Amino acid sequence: MKLQENRLIKYLIDSRTELKKVTWPTKKETTKLTLIVLGVSIFTAAFLGFLDFGFDEILAFVIR
């Protein structure tokens, strides 16, 4: 049990040390990147919705 405790403590200390090295984005960068992700997601959803609608119409035409 002692070995596992030492590993856990070492892991937590190492994690804290690494987190101190992280360069966190600014609020402006975070907002900009969030808007880019939302824009790409909305575009992808619209594109796939358009394809789904188109293939549905084609399939309905073939079945009739």
Main features:
64 residues; 0% strand; 2 helices; mainly alpha
Tally of individual helices: 2
The dominant shape is elongated
User: Rg from C-alpha positions?
Assistant: 25 Å
User: Count of DSSP E strands?
Assistant: 0
Average pLDDT rating: 93
Write the layout of secondary structure elements.
Blueprint: H1 2-21, H2 27-63
Describe the structure.
The chain is mostly helical and 64 residues long. The chain has a domain at 24-64. Helices cover 89% and strands 0% of the residues. The chain has helices at 2-21, 27-63. The chain is elongated. The termini are far apart. The relative contact order is 0.06.
Brief summary of the model shown:
This protein is mainly α. It has a domain at 24-64.
